Amino acid sequence: MPLNTIDRADTFMFQTYRRSPITLVRGDSCRVWDENGKEYIDFVGGIAVCNLGHSSPIVSEALCEQSKKLVHVSNLFYTQPQTELAEILVENSFADRVFFCNSGAEANEAAIKLARRYSTEKFGPERHVIITMDNSFHGRTMATLSATGQQKIRKGFDPLLQGFRFVPFNDLENLRCAIDGSVCAVMLEPIQGEGGVVLPDPDYLKGVREICTEHAMLLILDEVQVGMGRTGRFFAHQHFGITPDIMTLAKALGNGLPIGAMLAKQELTDAFGPGSHATTFGGTPLIAAGALAVVKSLLNDGWIENAREMGDYFKDRLTDLQQKYSVIKDVRGLGLMLGLMSDREVADIANACMERGFLINCVQERVLRFVPPLIIGKEEIDLLINCLDKVFKEI
Q1: Minimum mean pLDDT among 64-68, 146-150, 172-176, 268-272: which range?
Q2: Residue 164 is a catalytic residue
Q3: Is there a catalytic annotation at residue 38?
Q4: Under CATH, what is the fold of the domain 70-300?
Q5: Is 68 a catalytic residue?
């Protein structure tokens, strides 16, 4: 008897993921279907990726049209979609220039390299340390896992890349104490996603910005998960009235296409001259055309406003559940990046919801994270709340 997809995957692929035991074969809007035809409402969204939903005609049409023209020529030549994508990102951000790559980890790698190269050229090689946050997550490459403040991510990969120093998130005093003449930058997520949907205190990011300016250090914001409208603003840092020197994007930038971006102010960009950093596939005509369609839709079609409105509605409904069940200790988040914290592990809750036709995931063992497509509506939210109500009642 031939093996099914799950058995074949477990036979031929590295077991680096704890996959749910379903095989998804089709998606449309906020729903996906498995190979048996069972329907699920998706509150994972590819982990904050599919902001325009699954099988978005906006993305499909852009890819189809571009695939008939030009797919790849390398970055040895100029291409129109890449240039237009860079232009629209600059016009709608603090930045002056963009570097395209293939993922969030690569974007963070580029940010680390730019910060160190710029600081070396301006201040000397001894100024190279980057301060990052406890419980942070910046990627799985050697540099980005070295910058990640979670021991479970770093375990077993020694020797790690040197030059990172960790301080608690939301603690300005500890940040000040960690600064000396070797520090060139502070790198953080405006909201810690993999850390459990942890929000900054109201004045924390302003304080970090002031400290960086005071000490002539760069501020790097990792908006890989929280950017592109997820929180109800185009970029999460816009909620807090600050601008970084460097910002990284990925995930929802391509709505499922492999693309990352590092954005920076003009003063820094001279440190990345020809030959200093490169990638074969970053911002190919095909992927850039898809991402350009995504950005235009996010900016023009009301999805960011919907994220804000539906996020408020969703958070209120989750808070109603918190009042009803003592096992729920906190509801937090911005826009459609929400977390529900329990007093116990929640993997069984996520599994129970999956059995009932809802995809959610858990982080930090005790937090249910909700990052659905930004096109989600009240109907889907109400259905999930009713499901959660039943599951919590059972436990």
Answers
A1: 268-272
A2: no
A3: no
A4: Aspartate Aminotransferase; domain 2 (3.40.640)
A5: no
